[in-house]
Amino acid sequence: MKITPCCVAALTWTLKDSLDDTLDTLDDPVEFLVGGDDLLPRIDEALQGYGQGARLDLYLEPPDAFGDFDDQLIFLEPRRLFAGALQEGMIFEGHALPQGVSPELPRDALYTVTDIYPDHVVLDGNHPLAGISLRLTLQVHAVREATPEELQRRSAGAGFFRIPLVAPGNNRVH
To answer: pTM for the complete prediction?
Structure first.
């Protein structure tokens, strides 16, 4: 069976940056709904027509991956608003941020703590891979028809690449 929109493909991959540093490796096949919400659109497009055993090497510029870095998504917030232990790398959902943070923070985004100062915390609403060109080597291990439930959900359940991010002027994935 060849990959078409709305079928399920079992994939493995190696994800590298443009300097050839490995960012992620998926060694065991995981199923993704092609044409749904599981993969980036550029990956969906590239997989079309391939079948089991295919290997693809993709180069993704930031607009085709996790978007360009947007300095308007960097926020400096008072440290006193964040009770308890706080560490760089912690991720907060926008709707779960403490009371008193800047009203300009989109509440339907994810924020990573990138710096902690005595009086301030830096929150970054960009995806960690925003602004980075990526090299993705995909291996197709199996292809099957999607179930009605998967089609209705628009997902085979993996969703590695698709966490919604809505920011001013940005409908990219996070």
So the answer is: 0.78
